[in-house]
Design a protein that fits this description.
It is elongated and about 140 Å long. The longest helix is centred in the middle third of the chain and has 42 residues. A four-stranded mixed sheet has the order 9-4-3-12. A four-stranded antiparallel sheet has the order 5-6-8-7, with helices on one face. It is of the alpha+beta class. The protein is about 25% helix and about 30% strand. α8 packs antiparallel against α12. The protein has 13 helices and 36 strands. The chain folds into three domains: about 80 residues, Gyrase A, domain 2, CATH 3.30.1360; about 100 residues, Topoisomerase, domain 3 (Orthogonal Bundle); about 325 residues, DNA gyrase/topoisomerase IV, subunit A, C-terminal (Neuraminidase).
Length: about 700
Amino acid sequence: IAVGMATKIPPHNLVEVCQAIIATIDKSTLIDSEKRKALLSTSKNSSQKDSPLVEKLLTINPNRVGQYLPQVDSDISLDEILHYIKGPDFPTAGIIFGQKEIREAYVGGRGKILIRGKADIEEIGNGRFQIIIRELPYQVNKANLVAKIAQLVREQKIKGISDLRDESDRDGIRVAIDLARGSRPQAVLNNLFKKTDLETSFPVNIVALVDKIPQTLGLRAIINLYISHRQEIITRRVIHELKSARHRGHILEGLKIALDHLDEVIKTIRNSANTDTARKQLMTRFGLSQIQANAILDMQLKSLSQLERDKVEKEYQTILAEIKRLTGILIEPQKVLAIIKEELNYLITNYPEERRTRVVSHLPDELSQEDLVPNKSVIITITKEGYIKRMPKNVYKSQRRGGKGIAGMTTKEEDTILETITANTHDQIIFFTNQGRAFATRAWEIPEGNRQSKGKAIVNLINIGPEEKINATLKLGKTDKKTGAFLLLATSKGTVKKTALSEFDKIRANGLIAMKLKEDDQLVWAKIVSEGDHILLATQNGQSIRFSEKEIRPTARDTMGVSGISLKKDDRVVSCEVFAPQGPKPKDKRRKFFRNLLVVTQKGLGKQTDLALFPVQHRHGKGVKIANINKKTGPVAAVKMINQDDETAIITSQKAQVIKLPIKNIPKLGRNTQGVILMRFKKAADQVASLTTLKRI
């Protein structure tokens, strides 16, 4: 009667496994067995050559060698092992999700590991996208996967796919999936993961025979058993080599005796009637064994020369050294562990296989595509009509002030640039509408465009109403989501409100109410504010006010706020800045530190003004002048806080004209000044729409 047991052990990376075994050996101790202790106690007064332990190992059945070996006991923890072994490493690469699930599988030997193929979303132009599959989960058949996707498209269970092609060649797998215009690439990809084998699970079931008994083993147990196995194999190999060395040494001892008494040996052989008689005479007269006597009789005449005699002596000394080395290995088990480490290091050096499968710490339901998207600096442009795009940071080249710049975006005749912000692709972008609602998306979900492309309608990303328009955006990185931070909201009529940032952690697809507004007011700015920060509001008529955030009492999301600045009827707020009251104190006195306000008017004039020239006041005052406004300058268009880390200013006009210029070329002037020309317009009716800056790398 036979018994079958299922086992499914995932493949691993050779280098990682070898490193984990070496680390386990380094943190291990050896515990002698009772049989080994007994033999070691009797060999205290014996020489290495006559050790009872060595003699026992040379005579017993090889299958019983393990009974006389010390047990390896390692103090290494599973977490320390996982520092080396990140998880399974499949030959087909792919992406593994869930560090917790990997650990559970390694603890008890059973578990389920989620694997996804590698799929990238690429833009192919004209607002269309393509999904490229480059890696498949382990043991997934590519042809079957392509057929399954085609079937789901025909049955309309997956929508948004216009074409499907297998473009694989000898360079690797490439399955191209063209998406229909207007489809959501991420939604289509999520459907592929959900309904096809582009996402599978590997059922880990580590069952092995230990002493002929099937057992389910964890990772630590497997490594310890492997070390014990190698310990026994190397010991048996050493025993075999020692037996061979002793045998050869025994023969060489006989040859040495013969060469030392050469004339007598030759005389004995010549006087013998036959070979058997000669053998017996040699054994009797010189005390040789039968093996030694046979070796002497088989010796050729050329071996009698002095040169050959020296070779025998040299080989004999080499054999004695080898016997001593091998005997030392059997007596000192640490030397066996050293051999194991040496062999593992040989594998690491000669077979340096890099990991193919990427391991993501969380399950896909616990995170977005963040782990699959590189974190890069980008520029995000939004128009007043609701078109949005992102571009690489280096699309604009730096120019001298007073230039005309280059075309930065194709817009409709009635559309203008609302805002240009710099962010990283992993940042969360929160959109605030004129009606006081908040929506959120990730920077990488914003479609990428080129310098002159119009972008994509923002309604494809967030569910805003037909009467709503995006007036403010806020980028949130991981470091911004710190405990105790607040969100400052400001309106065009000078109303300000402070709300805990934690209330915006989970923004629903239908948005959240960020602020209640009066009928003639609209939400325009959103900033992160910390305890002790100062706030500066600037108006289009050239007024500004600076006050502490402590003058604003924190309130809930669905509240109206308080007055920040007292405005005239024809005035409105054009900028809101938040900053610490004191700048950083430089440790290096040679380094220049400053904090200025960069002011740009609608007709392209601008300047820098020292922040220290703006006094701290109470909120709801009229403030002080920030610029001298006249017909030449036009109203203030934008004001932005800059410091020594800001290197470049990007000014965008309403007709999508863009100029990028070094901040060091913009002069530093007083508050009641109009500035110098920073930008000239190609069209007479054009004017400055937005301002952003780039940090020094």
